[in-house]
Structures are given as C-alpha cells and as structure tokens.
Amino acid sequence: MSQEIKKIPTTPYENQVPGTSGLRKKTRVFMDNENYAENFIQSVFNTLRDEPDTNISNEALCVGGDGRYLNHEILQTILKMAVANGFGKVYVPRDGLISTPAMSAVIRQRGALGGFILTASHNPGGADGDFGIKYNVRNGGPAPEAFTENIYKHSLSIDNYKILGDFEFEIGKETDYKVLGTTVSVIDPFTDYEAVLRGIFDFDKLSGLFKSGFKMVFDAMHGVTGIYGKYFLEHVLGAPEGTVVRGEPLPDFGGIHPDPNLVYNSYLVDMMSSDGAPDFGAANDGDGDRNMVFGRGLFIPPGDSLAVITDMAHEAIPGFKNGVKGVARSMPTSTSVDRVAGKLGIDCYETPTGWKYFGNLMDAGLCSICGEESFGTGADHVREKDGLWAVLSWLSIIEHTGKSAREILSDHWKKYGRSYYERHDYEEIDKEGANELFEEMRKRLPNLIGEEMGSSQIAEADEFRYVDPVTGDVSEKQGLRFKLADGSRAVARLSGTGTKGATMRFYLEQYDSEHTERDTGKVLEKLSSSITRLFEIEKRFGRKTPTLVT
Ligand code: VG1
Ligand code: CO
Q1: Strands (E), 306-390
Q2: Per-residue pLDDT tens over the stretch 81-136
Q3: Residue of 17, 290, 329, 353 best suited for mutating to test ligand 1, as the one with most atoms within 8 Å of CB
Q4: N or C terminus of the chain: which is more exposed, having fewer CB within 10 Å?
Q5: Ligand 1 within 6 A of 353 CB?
Q6: CB-based burial of residue 360 (10 Å sphere; 0-12 exposed, 13-18 middle, 19+ buried)?
Q7: To the nearest 10°, the Cα dihedral for 455, 459, 461, 465?
Q8: Which residues are CB-contacts of 77 (< 8 A; sequence separation ≥ 6)?
Q9: What DSSP state is assigned to residue 334?
Q10: Closest Cα partner for 356 from 497, 160, 513?
C-alpha cells in the first residue's frame, strides 16, 4: 500500500450548496461525477484552513456515517484526505457506523475540531436513493450558515485536492495506528454517547421499568440506530430481545424511506394501533436524530412531545432537576411549548428551520431543550437532535408518573389546551414554478391582511427573518407566515433537504383551550383548503392533494 500524498487536479461543480443540513444529492451524483465528494471534502478542509488560529496538525477530525450506500467508500476517501491534509488525529467509529447525536457527543467529548457525518438523514438510500455529507463544528453541532457559505465559495474555485495514494484503513475493531503524521483511532460508537446519556437519565430506574413488564417497540427503520437500540435498550436497560425491530443497518434501508412520520412509517402506525400493541412505540430516522413516539393506539405529535418533555423534565429527568434553562423551537413548530415556557417562567426562542440555529443558544446557556415539528427533539447534552434521548425522556416520564403515555398527553392537553397541528408536503413539484410562486406571494403579503382564511381573517402576514440573539447574524426568507384573528396560523416554506424538484411545506395550527380530543384533520380542514387556494396549488402544480400529511 502506498503512503504517498497525491495532489490531484480537479474542476469545480456549481451545485455544492449545503442545504438545511449538509450537502445532499442523489447517490448517483456522487457516483457519476468525478471527484464530486473529494471536491466538497477538500472545500471543507480549505474552509478550515482559513480559520484564524487553526493548525490542522494539532487538531482531531471525526468521520462516520449511518451505513447507507457509499458510506464505506466515502469514509475511506475522507480518511485518506484527512491524512493527506495533515490532521493530527482522526477518530472513526468501528465499522464506520455512528448516529448523528453520537457523533456530536464524540466531537464534544474528545475536543475535536469537527466531524463528517455521512448521511442524507431521513432521505431514502441505496444506489438510486440519496447520499449526503454533513460537517459539524467544534461544539458538535451542524456548521453554521457563515461556515457553509465559505465551503460553497471554496467549492466554486477548487482546482486540486490532496489524498493519500492507494490505501485501505481497517476499521473493523478498535485500534490505533499511525499513517504519516496522523494517528487514526478506531473507537467504540457508544462510549462517549453513553457517558452523556448517563449524566442525564437514571438508568437504574429505566431498567426497573422494563423489569416491571413494561413493553415497548423500537423501530430503527434499518438505519444506524439499530445498533444503538440494541445496545441501550436491550443490553444496558434489559428490555427483552426483540424490542428493537428492523434493527440491522442496511445500505438501502431495506427499500424503506427511513423518515419516521405517519406516512413513511405506516409499519409502526399499524403496530401501535393493533390489539396487541405494546405500551410504548418509537421510531428513529436513518441517522438517529429524528424520533416519532406513540403510546398504545396513540400518536404523540412532535410539538406536543416537546411540550410534555419540557413540562415534566425538572421532576422526571435527573439531568434537569435544577430546571430547564430555556426552550427553543423552529418557527413552523407548534406553539404548544410556548405555553409551557410561559408557565415555567422560562424563555422560548423561535428560530429558522434546521438544528444549526439552536447551537448558539445552547452554547450561550439560553436554552437547554429544543425541538422541531419534523420529529426532532433534543437537548444541550449534544448539539444535534437526538432520537434516543427523546425515547429515554418519555420512558423517564412514564416511569416517574406511573401513567400511560395516553394519560400523560391527555393531562397535558387538559392543563394547557391543545394546538391541533399538521404539516402538508407537496414533494417533487416544479422548482422554478415554486420559486416564482414564493416571489409572487412575498410581494402580495401586505395586501393580504384582512382577507378571509380558514374560519377567520388574516391579521398578520410576513416573512420570517431571524436575528440570532447571540451573534447578531441575520437569516432571511425563512418562511411565509399568516396569523389569523382567531389565533390560528399557517406557514409556508420550501424545503432545503430535497434532492429532486422542490418540496413545498404548509404548516397548519389551531389552538383550542377547551376541546382537546377532536379530530385534527377536521379541525384544520378549512385552514388547509384556504391556504392551498391562496397558493393556487392545483392550478400551478396540478396537485389536488399533498404527497404527505403528518
Ligand atoms: C427538514 C426539516 C427540518 C430538519 C431538516 C434536517 O428540512 O423540515 O426541520 O431540521 O430536515 O433534518 P427542510 O428544509 O427539508 O424542511 V435531518 O433528520 O435531515 O438532519
Ligand atoms: Co436525520
């Protein structure tokens, strides 16, 4: 094997813009375009070199992924490029498999400069699916916007990349070895993550819950959390074998779309509504940062899950016994948690979509629990959303209260009222048409005030613009918002994670303080038809119904 560093000439690609969370493209884009991944990786390294006071030879880099198609190949490429670019140290999890939150823990625990996570998250995998590369920075969170913009700039002018000659790293077991100036350490994918989780949860009490006969199912959707579910739930907490289903990480997720929502995970929906349903059910997405949770026969909407966890944390979760510092949610996420924050007397921050905006708030100690409507919940133990954390939080609340998930949620709604909430997605619509539509709507906003919408009138219409309270950074065009006179709300935005055409999302919410057991679809029916009419969805895109309602 050759230990020679090669400098390979290359030409830029115009489309390496990192989206809501990393560079995400069809797998074939990575396979069919020469040096596609190499260009992006070298652009990250070039961005790092620009940072003042960064000396790469004294720094550690982490690399791992969710096991999807190309995980192994691109991991080897990054290892070779990290050596050639002169990193002092590289950490790689055994077999190259690690969940996004566990990677965040590794970066933080080991004081690394940052890390690559090879994942397109909840997008499908396989040669005909999607692949992605995320870069996380020193605090363990996704690279902030200013950083990703620099990566993009570098990608437009790149003319060479550095790589070690023909070389294959053995990563099947924990070991250290030195290649040129770099020490490569193959590490256990659980240790650092387990240390942070043990600092938050009472593992003895949780094992007690399983000893008492409590039954749950954890659906890993053939993503990376199969190995975490088996380790933490079955091995550490003693849940019976078979608690984890679809637990083997597969390069194409066994053909399923590893997005834990009501449509793409009908498997768990069916299981949790069947006669023999266990007490609790949960699914994680491909890279383990999203979660969908169920009580027996009951779907727990993400916005409510965030609100319940925030409300109960100080009494049920030891890591929060001194209280929750503050909370944050992305703008389209339901306002359920705002009411809890109001009651607890803590601040509630509203950020743009994407976990990267929570990092600064958490680093500054302004908030400790965060969530998004897209099935993401997490806290400041890491700087990513964390599917397993959400599961352990619910188990802690169930153990502490001795109540079922259904009782916990019903009690919550009785106490705070309920935000009926739905997201409607229109996937793979014409991209140009979608951009034009948003341009037009943007202009029309001021004239829409007073117009009928749902069962009320539009009281406010604006486009969300975020000023980071810590850094002062401004993020524009973060979603069109319509607030109605009766307190309900509709939001529209375009996705930044899709890989084909455009995906448009409508987020609908209506609060009811008294009647908390109504049918969500019925409650939101009028609002939904008003917004689709206003946006002329059928006329412009020929779509009568959304691709997905969740
Ligand atoms: C989507 C979600 C957003 C989430 C992002 C990454 O973004 O809406 O809430 O943070 O995916 O999640 P968009 O731009 O498509 O709406 V994941 O699980 O890919 O890290
Ligand atoms: Co994910």
Answers
A1: 326-330, 347-351, 369-372, 376-379
A2: 999 999 999 999 999 999 999 999 999 999 999 999 999 999 999 999 999 999 99
A3: 353
A4: N
A5: yes
A6: buried
A7: -120
A8: 37, 38, 41, 163
A9: -
A10: 497
Is pLDDT of 2 > 70? no
Q: How far apart are CA 313 and CA 296, in angstroms?
A: 22
Verify whether ligand 1 is closer than 6 Å to residue 290 (CB atom).
yes
What whole-number distance in Å separates Cα of residue 100 and Cα of residue 152? Answer: 22
Which residues are part of the catalytic machinery? Answer: 121
Full 3-state SS string of 386-431? CHHHHHHHHHHHHHHHCCCHHHHHHHHHHHHCEEEEEEEEEEEECH
374, 383, 389, 423: which to mutate for ligand 1, most atoms within 8 A of CB? 374
Cβ distance 289 to 228 under 8 Å? no
Q: What is the DSSP letter of 367?
A: -
Chain-centroid distance of CA 381 in Å reads 15
Burial status of residue 364 (CB atoms within 10 A of its CB: 0-12, 13-18, 19 or more): middle
pLDDT of residue 336: 97
**Which tokens in the block code for residue 14?**
């115009």
pTM: 0.94
| CA dihedral of residues 232, 237, 243, 246 (deg, nearest 10) | 0
Residue nearest ligand 1's atom 20 by CA: 121
| Ligand 1 atom 19, closest CA | 121
Instruction: Determine which helix (DSSP H) or strand (DSSP E) holds 312, and give its type and residue range.
Output: helix 302-316
